[in-house]
Write a structure and sequence with these properties.
The complex is a heterodimer of chains A (175) and B (343). Chain A has 175 residues and is mainly alpha-helical. Chain A contains 10 helices and no strands. By secondary structure, chain B is α/β, with parallel strands linked by helices. Helices cover 41% and strands 10% of the residues of chain B. In chain B, the strands form 2 sheets. A 6-stranded mixed beta sheet of chain B has the order 3-2-4-1-6-7, sandwiched between helices. A two-stranded parallel sheet of chain B has the order 5-8. The chains are: A mainly alpha (175), B alpha/beta (343). At the A-B interface, helix 2, helix 4, helix 5, helix 7 and helix 8 of A face helix 1, helix 2, helix 3 and helix 10 of B. Chain B: This is Glycerol-3-phosphate acyltransferase 9. Chain B: Keywords: Acyltransferase, Transferase. Chain A: This is Calcineurin subunit B.
């Protein structure tokens, strides 16, 4: 149970920083490494889904399952890269790209009506009927000039979310 | 044509068994009430939820309660390091053997008197008649030993495996302890009944309860279980705060066994703690057991300088109930349907 940062060399820190395009400062990366080690209880070198779900605040989040698919089994370098969209230094484009990836569950670069419906279902649960969900989604798509069969790509997302003052930021606590 | 927003009522009971977590979570959780008609970008913009999730990944108030904070290394220069080495030698080769010897002699004396005395004196002490229980915050199993100095308490504990379990079934049984098992579902009712029986019994030792239900790292308090507060008797709060300069007494049961923890304590300089016996409290008229528990937790936390956290300590062993997620879903669904009808 030694001090976590002693296991992370300066070379490692720089490599991680390079990989995430300098989204985090070196101190933040050390902090994230401590956090990574704290969550990775069995020291497997990656955080499993079970270990993520042991954080109650994460487990109660409606999008936890979708995010788990993206973050399960990542090593530390990839973990930091995953979180880089949440850095205050990340560009709006990077943030929109992250949101796109959350929707695009099969990773083929296209978001379908079903994908959007799935996310809406995660967010609203049993409090809206399935039929009503489809209706709401179809209506707003219609209004924005898309149809039920439209396949959205990243540039569509950029167009829709570009001016909305998107705020996705987390602060990494640095002791 | 669009039907007016018909919200399906929640089938699950949203009444929580504890304080409202939403009051404690950092509010980014309340999706700012945007005005105007619902547009595609409002549905696609999942950023508040994502921010919460990422925030939880990066740092969360629950894991913080069970973190053993490493002390700052202070032995890093040419003068202090030899001093520290001397300290280690002294602690491991002088203090530790001394303590082991004292412990062994103590056990021999105790066991040789306990076994005959126990069979002679059973049922001859009638001390306490007052209907009261003691509650304290929990950091380690030695909390019990420290408080035992005041009077012989009966305590409620989780049955442990190994030599600790043996100790529990023989010696602790004689002070009248109650066992529980976290992993059993119906356990709560059984334990509640046992607690009630014990308190009402006239020649039982006063009951000491740790309402957190698990060891916490002495910087925070987690939710107090209401079991101790619905027995209809006075509650005497006790606050315990360990001085970390000497040793960190937090038993991180996820990281070490009790034996290792005990070894760590016995090779340290000293265990120093402050114990405050606070004003006895009773249930106020119109107060629920949960509110009473929160009020006492507040008293203890303030006295010992601990921060309050709304989580149930048992989340160490199980997942949070779906009620919390459903709450968030419900509030988002309501806002969507409300904005649907706006023009």
């Amino acid at each position: 149970m030694g001090n976590a940062s002693s296991m992370l060399t300066q070379y490692d820190i720089e490599e991680v920083q390079q990989h995430c395009n300098h989204a985090f400062s070196q101190q933040e990366i050390v902090s994230l490494y401590e956090r990574f080690c704290q969550l990775d209880r069995n020291n497997g070198g990656f955080i499993s889904a079970e270990e993520f779900l042991s954080v109650p605040e994460f487990a109660v989040n409606p999008l936890s399952q979708r995010l788990l698919r993206m973050v399960d089994g990542l090593n530390f370098k990839e973990f930091v890269a995953f979180l880089s969209a949440f850095s205050p230094h990340a560009t709006l484009h990077q943030k929109i790209e992250f949101i796109f990836k959350v929707y695009d569950s099969d990773g083929n670069g296209k978001v379908t009506f079903t994908d959007m419906l799935d996310v809406l279902r995660d967010l609203t649960g049993t409090f809206i009927s399935e039929k009503q969900r489809e209706q709401v989604l179809t209506d707003v798509l219609d209004e924005a000039g898309y149809t039920k069969d439209s396949l959205m790509i990243l540039s569509d997302f950029v167009k829709i979310l570009g001016n909305s003052g998107l705020k996705i930021e987390v602060e990494v606590p640095v002791d | 044509m669009r039907s007016p927003g018909q919200l399906k009522s929640s089938s699950s009971e949203l009444d929580l068994d504890g304080p409202n977590i939403e009051d404690y979570l950092p509010s980014g959780s309340s999706i700012q009430e945007p005005l105007g008609k619902l547009r595609l970008r409002d549905l696609l913009d999942i950023s508040p939820t994502l921010t919460e999730a990422a925030g939880a990944i990066v740092d969360d108030s629950f894991t913080r309660c069970f973190k053993s904070n490493q002390p700052e290394p202070w032995n890093w220069n040419i003068y202090l390091f030899p001093l520290w080495c001397f300290g280690v030698v002294f602690r491991y080769f002088i203090l530790f053997p001394l303590r082991v010897i004292v412990l062994t002699i103590g056990w021999i004396i105790f066991l040789s008197s306990f076994i005959p005395v126990h069979s002679l004196l059973k049922g001859h002490d009638k001390l306490r008649k007052k209907l009261e229980v003691f509650v304290a915050n929990h950091t380690s199993m030695i909390d019990f030993i420290i408080l035992e100095q005041m009077t012989a308490f009966a305590v409620i504990m989780q049955k442990h495996p190994g030599w600790v379990g043996l100790l529990q079934s023989t010696i602790l049984e004689s002070v009248g302890c109650i066992w529980f098992n976290r992993s059993e579902a119906k356990d709560r009712e059984i334990v509640a009944r046992k607690l009630r029986d014990h308190v009402q019994g006239t020649d039982n030792n006063p009951l000491l309860i740790f309402p957190e239900g698990t060891c916490v790292n002495n910087h925070y308090t987690v939710m107090f279980k209401k079991g101790a507060f619905e027995l209809g008797c006075t509650v005497c709060p006790v606050a315990i705060k360990y001085n970390k300069i000497f040793v960190d007494a937090f038993w991180n049961s996820r990281k070490q066994s009790f034996t290792m923890h005990l070894l760590q304590l016995m090779t340290s300089w000293a265990v120093v703690c402050d114990v405050w016996y606070l004003e006895p409290q009773t249930l106020r008229p119109g107060e629920t057991a949960i509110e009473f528990a929160e009020r006492v937790r507040d008293i203890i936390s303030v006295r010992a300088g601990l921060k309050k956290v709304p989580w149930d300590g048992y989340l160490k062993y199980s997942r949070p109930s779906p009620k919390h997620r459903e709450r968030k879903q419900q509030s988002f669904a309501e806002s969507v349907l409300r904005r649907l009808d706006e023009k």
